[in-house]
Amino acid sequence: MTATSTQAAPSPGLAPAGGPVLDIRNLSTQFPGEDGPVTVVSDVSISVSAGETLAVVGESGSGKTVTFLSSLGLVAKPGRVTGGQVLLEGTDLLKLPQGELRRLRGQRISMVFQDPLSGLNPVFTIGDQIVEVLRAHRRMSFRSAREESIRLLARVHIPDPQRRIDDYPHQFSGGMRQRALIAMAIALAPKVLIADEPTTALDVTVQAQILELLTELRDDTGMALVLITHDLGLVARYAHRVCVMYGGRIAELGALDDVFTAPRHPYTISLFRSIPHLDTPPEAELTPIEGQPPNPAALPPGCAFEPRCFQARGRNDCKTIVPPRFATTKPAHLSACHHWRELGDLSIQT
Amino acid sequence: MTAQASHPFPLPAGQNPVLLISNVTKTFAARQWLLARSQPPVRAVDDVSLELRQGETLGLVGETGSGKSTLGRLVLRLINPTSGTIRFDETDITKLSLADVRRMRSRMQMVFQDPFGSLDPRMTVRSLVLEPMIVHGYPRSEINGRAETTMRQVGLDPQLADRYPHEFSGGQRQRIGIARAMVLDPKLLVLDEPVSALDVSIQAQILNLLRDIQRRTNIAYLFIAHDLAVVRHISNRVAVMYLGRIVETGPRDALYGNPRHPYTVSLLSAVPVPDPARERTRKRVALYGEIGSGNAVPSGCRFHPRCFRARLVGAKGAVPTVTASDATLPANCVHVNPELKPIGGGHSAACHYPDEVPAQA
Fold it and tell me: How far is CA B165 from CA B115, B124, B168, in A?
């Protein structure tokens, strides 16, 4: 980090103008289960524009990771995409033949995963692995690929890249491994970078460094950044727009400030109330979300959140009808709650 | 520096802390490779003193490699300290025979992070909860019915006593882990990252449960975690560890409201708060590099290679400086290991310049 003691906050919560680079429309994904197919992603529509950071928030099993694995054609068999479109700059990725899709992955759209150790092959040097990515996609001599790799390592602020390029993954710390993976992910200058819990395995000071790096790369290259996370603080600091997922569906979607100051879905509100924050009164009781996260194989017939919802209170529509996406007070702020109008602008911060 | 001096409130006469850790050090021999030059031992915990009282929660925070989990294992004497004493309930457990340590452990229990790996999948909840009583030789008459009462205490339906762990969710499994720890009615619970493996909506259930149990039983908690917001929520006092040392300790509100060690300052500023408006105005302190490893602890103050404050003080030039870590740093930061010194109100910091507080957001 080259920083002096303090840094300015990143770009404010306004999404840059311009059409979507990645446009996911009505995506559904199923896995076979004991009693018939289990829908883990259901009718998800979400898009992200150049230069924008979209945060996708949800608990384990909410479908946040599978949505993007499905989009990239990476969902493991026997899972399969059962419907929808994934438009990357107008091309439907779901219609592409495997070879074509493989060429686009890495080149136009790439993904960084949570665990930086399992993303790297322990028997090859960091340099070998970046060179391999470059040479697989571009006609490049070994020498120039190596030079490019050194430049990429410097780009992600690995100190002394000329020397560290010949290190093996175990010689890198967790934060440096994640940097190396980011270097590989941006090697071909993708238009969209999907970062799936990129810092969950890292310490908080390193987490900040990695996210500053991703934001810096987004600003420099104009790529779109999708940040999959469960940490609402990270969302507040780094995202322009937020998508909250629950039970394989989008519960709420909107601009950061709208979702965080006037949430229009009871699940979002409950999330805020259940997590201790650094700036709430420490004596304040947490309000846990009762019950358990939903089992995708046994979703309720109506709203997936209904059994845990403070707002539903046994209402029939919540129990029986899957809520569509409603535009709320703002057209770009969507909520999948039958009764979003009843949710006041309550202060969720205290 | 005695441990008592770090506590903000005087102890009532005749009452002693449940746990008194004095100058405890734990070194591990570095791995020895054939024909390789021998490495110096790793000091995982370095001269740590702490105390914990009945009904109190001491939060222990630090990054990977800070030694916080090692300290937790030392407290339960799952490993032996290299030097120093650990008094539990007025007995120095470092001097006890293994048989006596086992007896002692019925009153000090541990809750682990992983609710999936820490429960035997072939045992029913009833046998899991009762196992500690059987191990400690309680008579049948006392054991009867205890599984059900303890399960009720931790919010589990006693009717599920004959089920197996795989039938439970992560949050419920952590309740089983807590039930196992509570069944012997201990005075001290060491909780090592008890909620970090749980979904966010479930964490609050477990945190509230721990608070309830403490109010009911006056048990003491040593709560080890890396999540600063969680630690703030549950703790009365907090100790921050860095590379084996306590660098700052104090009452919760003092430590979070007015952190004095630069490491604590940067840790707190690294945690984002879920409020976009505040995040935009908040100043952040960047740390240089990453935590080192215990086998190459920096000279002087072990935090100096990453410290923003040392750079500020060094740049002012009012004190003797040296060049280290590509910067001009105060000579004492590079050469002298700062002691954990009281700075008032039971708040202590191990920094040569605790009063150099940078502009805060």
Answer: 9, 7, 6
What pLDDT shows up at residue B33?
62
Structural domain that includes position B245: 1-8+15-29+41-257
Q: Can you name the CATH fold of A20-239?
A: Rossmann fold (3.40.50)
Residues B217, B345 within the same domain: no
Q: Which residues contact A170 (CB under 8 A, 6 or more apart)?
A: A122
Would you list the domain boundaries of chain A? Answer: 20-239, 249-342
Candidates B208, B275, B358; nearest CB to A349: B275
Q: Is residue B196 part of a domain?
A: yes
**What gap in Å lies between CA B272 and CA B278, rounded to an integer?**
9
| ipTM associated with this complex | 0.83
> What is the chain B residue with the closest CA to A14?
B276
Name the minimum distance, in Å, from the CA of A14 to any CA of chain B: 11
Please tell me whether the peptide bond between B139 and the residue prior to it is cis, using omega within 30 degrees of 0: no
Q: Which two tokens stand for residue B97?
A: 């025979």
Using CA atoms, how far apart are residues A314 and A316, in angstroms rounded to an integer? 6
Non-local (6+) Cβ contacts of A117 within 8 A are A169, A174, A177
pLDDT at A7 > cutoff 50:
no
- Tokens 């700062």 sit at which residue? B338
DSSP label of A117:
T
Question: How far is B42 from B92, CA to CA, in rounded Å?
Answer: 25
The count of structural domains within chain B is 2
- For A219-237, write each residue's pLDDT tens digit: 999 999 999 998 999 999 9
How many other C-beta atoms lie within 10 A of the C-beta of residue B282? 20
Does B36 fall in a domain? Answer: no
| Chain B residues with beta carbon closer than 8 angstroms to that of A206 | 63, 290
> Considering the domain boundaries, does residue B35 fall inside one?
no
Q: Are residues B120 and B236 in the same domain?
A: yes
CATH of the domain at B81: 3.40.50.300
Question: A228-258 in b/e burial notation, b at 16+ Cβ within 10 A?
Answer: bbbbbbbbbbbbbbbbbbbbbbbbbbbbbbb
Burial (Cβ within 10 Å: 0-12, 13-18, ≥19) of residue A195: buried
Same domain, B202 and B284: no
